[in-house]
Amino acid sequence: MSHLETAMAILMQTFDKYATVEGNKCTLNKGELKTMMEAELPSFMKGAKNPDEVDKMMKALDYNGDAEVDFSEFVVFVAAMTCACHDRMPKK
After folding, report:
1. Nearest to residue 71, comparing CAs of 27, 22, 21?
2. Which one, 19, 36, 53, 66, has the greatest CB density within 10 A?
3. Per the database record, which ranges form the EF-hand domain (predicted)?
4. Where are the domains of the chain?
5. Is 3-88 a CATH 1.10.3210.10 domain?
C-alpha cells in the first residue's frame, strides 16, 4: 500500500479500536473519545489546560447532535488537527 493508503487504513483501524469498546460499534461515545485522545493524542491532552477539554471537543465534533462521534465526524477532527499541526511545522 502507498503511504496515503496506509494512513487511511490506520485511521479506520484506530476509530474501530475505540468505537467497539462499548455501546454503538459505529460511533465513539464521550468515554471512548477521551480514551482515544489520551492514548493516541497524548501531547494534545497534556497541553489541554482545562479538564473539560474532552467535553468541548465532543460538542465541537458532534455535528449531528447525537452525543456520539461517528466516523465522518472523526475524520473531520483528524483533518483539522492535521492542518493545525501542519501550519505549526517549519517549512522546508
Report:
1. 27
2. 19
3. 49-84
4. 3-88
5. no
